[in-house]
Amino acid sequence: MDQSANIHHKSAMTTLIEAHDLHKSFGHTHAVNGLSLSVQAGEAYGLVGPDGAGKTTTLRLLVGALHADSGSAQVGGHDVARQTEQARAGLGYLAQRFSMYGDLTVMENLRFFGQVRGVSGAALERRAEELLKFVGLGGFESRRADQLSGGMKQKLGLACALVHQPKVLLLDEPTGGVDPVTRQDFWQLIIRLLGEGAAVVVSTPYMDEAARCNRLGFMYAGRLLVQGSPRELTASLAGRVLELAAHPKDIAKAVAQADPEVEDVLTFGDRFHLRVTRIEGPLARLPAALAAAGVAADRLRPIPPSLEDVFISLLAAQ
């Protein structure tokens, strides 16, 4: 079942984030180059791309931490450049690096960021209790932030970003460096927020996380190469990917690369993904070619394309 599609179906179609033709340069480097996107209430939008693609700069433009050279961005209906405080009032931001105060406890961090966001008194205490339970940090109220594990730090960061109940959440690689169980926990929290009508933009290097998003934008050199749902993006390579399991692997790869209709050979663990112009030719020719080269082929079959296949094919075309 497409979990993200269910979330999207339940949410109101209200645009909470809108960016149009954003540009930002640092010297001669075009960090963001003509970027446009929109995100609806209840929708998770994933920014995917290699290091230096412009993902963090994009999020910093949306949060108002950087000023665009040109273009415009609105958050919750407020212009980020001209109505910065109003835009930020409905926005939560989790930076790539842990940005809590290490010498303060979990609860002290929540209280501090709540007061900065205009939440105080009994309302802040109630909200802090709710958030600690929500992110799974109940019982750790008195632990100093610098004594938390990596995953717990990210959960504290999320709690602080949510303390003022924002409808827009910007997450910059929120699960980088944490264990798989914590990654799963973190995404369950995001899914719950989407169900409550939040709009989430998340940058991630993980394709399994990208697949959870309603829509994706593949970034490279400051540009969005393509946008769409995971299903739409993988459909662009439908009927063009073969899986090959064979040994010796180095010879198998060389044989596959020599086929005239094989565009690329990618290693996926103990297997290869072959991106082909059409399946029929390589599927017919490769078994004999591999055998002639002394390669034992355990499996050669068409498979549905993955997001990794799509992303690498896009980069190869640049």
Layout of secondary structure:
Elements: H1 3-10, E1 15-26, E2 29-40, E3 44-48, H2 55-63, E4 70-75, E5 78-79, H3 84-89, E6 91-94, H4 106-116, H5 121-135, H6 150-161, E7 168-172, H7 180-195, E8 199-203, H8 207-210, E9 215-220, E10 223-228, H9 230-235, E11 241-247, H10 249-258, E12 262-268, E13 271-276, H11 280-292, E14 296-302, H12 307-316
Helix pairs in contact: 4-6, 5-6, 10-11
Structure characterization notes:
The chain has 2 domains: 3-229, P-loop containing nucleotide triphosphate hydrolases (Rossmann fold), CATH 3.40.50.300; 236-316, Alpha-Beta Plaits. It contains 12 helices and 14 strands. It has helices at 3-10, 55-63, 84-89, 106-116, 121-135, 150-161, 180-195, 207-210, 230-235, 249-258, 280-292, 307-316; strands at residues 15-26, 29-40, 44-48, 70-75, 78-79, 91-94, 168-172, 199-203, 215-220, 223-228, 241-247, 262-268, 271-276, 296-302. The chain has a 6-stranded mixed sheet with strand order 6-7-8-3-9-10, with helices on both faces. A 4-stranded antiparallel sheet has the order 2-1-4-5. Strands 12-13-11-14 form a 4-stranded antiparallel sheet, with helices on one face. Helix 4 (106-116) packs parallel to helix 6 (150-161), helix 5 runs antiparallel to helix 6 and helix 10 (249-258) packs across helix 11. Residues 1-12 have low confidence and may be disordered.
